[in-house]
Amino acid sequence: MSQPPLSFNPAGIELDRRQGLSLQLYQALRQRVLDGRLSSGTRLPASRDLALALTISRNSVVRAYDQLYAEGFIESRVGDGTYVAQLPQRLSPANVLSTKLSTGFSTGLSPGLSTNAVDLPGFSSSKVIHSSALERLDRHYLPAPASGAPKAFRVGVPAFDLFPFEVWAKLNAAFWRNPDLEQLCYGDPAGDMRLREMIAAYLRNSRGLQCRAEQIVITSGAQQGISLCAQLLVEPGAGVAVENPGYRAAGHAFAIAGARLHGVAVDSEGLDCAALARLSDCRLAYVTPSHQYPTGVIMSLARRLELLAWAERSGGWIVEDDYDGEYRFSGAPLAPLAALDRQGRVLYVGTFGKVAFPALRLGYLVLPPTLVDAFSRRRALDVRHSEVSTQAVMAEFIAAGHFQRHIRRMRRAALSRRNALLAGWPADIPGVANLPSVAAGLHVMVRVQSLAREQELLAQAARVGVEINGLSSYCLGDGPPQHAGLVLGFAAVPEAAIADALARLRRAWR
Ligand SMILES: Cc1ncc(COP(=O)(O)O)c(C=O)c1O
After folding, report:
1. Which residues pair with residue 445 across a beta bridge?
2. Distance, CA of 269 to CA of 267 (rounded, Å)
3. Which residues line ligand 1 (CB under 6 A)?
4. Which run of H or E residues covers position 319?
5. What is the distance between the alpha carbons of residues 335 and 285, in angstroms, rounded to a whole number?
6. Which atom, in ligand 1's list, is nearest to the CA of 223?
7. How far apart are the CA of 156 and the centre of ligand 1, in A?
8. Domain with CATH 1.10.10.10 in the chain
9. Is CATH 1.10.10.10 the right assignment for the domain spanning 21-95?
10. What is the 457 CA–ligand 1 centroid distance (Å)?
11. Residue 176: which pLDDT band, with cuts at 50, 70 and 90?
């Protein structure tokens, strides 16, 4: 006979009525799942009953449940209510996550910090290639991303036509009209303290990432954050796992630092952690768990726990690239992997490029505390620190509330542009799968039956002036690409331009 489900007693949940109730309830329930007080299979009360028990609105409970559901902490069984998600016993959060907060762990860095001298292994995971620095650069030369005026369906570009340039210009003028002379001298290589404080507060509020300003290092966009991780954490010859298909510029940054790259497959739950565990030389994994680039898969909770367990077991590092986490079309952004990390194994990479515009070149790392000094020192050697006015203006932009307003505007715009793409997408194109639902991000990936067909569709699109990326170009390895598909960015241009491009595509693909 099957066991009756455990049921949950809400006694002990105390909510402060002056603060957001759904967020507090979400946090309280999440914490109970993580520390084992709520175990897998426990039945949660119906939203109406929990609302009554806590004397809050049913909407607050529904919002908290929605977020927990999206992050994989709970699951609903049709006609049977809501339960704490079933995870394999070995992966129950209480087993995987230490309840200690990360403070005094080893950095794993060699005392001299890896500066990757002359001869480095190359891209292939199977052979070691010795080459001069210039040859290495040639080998890892990556064509620049598409430039020029944004057009449909450029990937990686937000709706920056909506950026409040006037506000930015005013704040910029105000900074330069009366600059604080102290700020014009050499500054902290980790970045402007006020901006670091603003970012930490933003991440605590929007992502539930409990970090302090001192853990943040300002970078020139996500790419430099990834590159610093490569320079500091990769010993020449060491294995690095990257998602396959995945963000090639990250792979190149690790390879040029001397890594042996291993492309690890991505399935419907994210990175294949069993395959990762079989890579005995691998101590670093680069992942995009909130919205895998480019497939759009959201990493399941079970995989997140498996990945964290791998890092803890192997003394490895996880570089989490949350490049477009602001764009979730229902509910709040998902809590990142870094918010689950209790061992200080996750380095979180963020960027302003997808909310403001890419050319701003402003991003940040959130680091385990003991890595901050090494990263700052490395940054000081590279560039001393980022240019002062952009940092100061961004700090003021956030402090004055413009940033949050702008994120809301950008999310609405991306949603509306996504809808324009979904509404006008030509159905029944031979060899092309249906468009998947798109719950997050700035792009969508649709599978195509063969590489030849992918290339044909791309060429036809290019002939009518429509920019589309081939999924095959995101595949790693020396052999023929294992995946074929179309990757379309939907945020770069307004709805009318999307409709116009779709009309051209329909003609080209008829
Ligand atoms: C997955 C991913 N990470 C990072 C970046 C780069 O961000 P940034 O412009 O801040 O370097 C991109 C850009 O498209 C991206 O797709």
Report:
1. 487
2. 5
3. 156, 221-223, 247, 288, 293, 321, 323, 351, 353, 358, 363
4. strand 317-321
5. 19
6. 11
7. 7
8. 21-95
9. yes
10. 25
11. very high
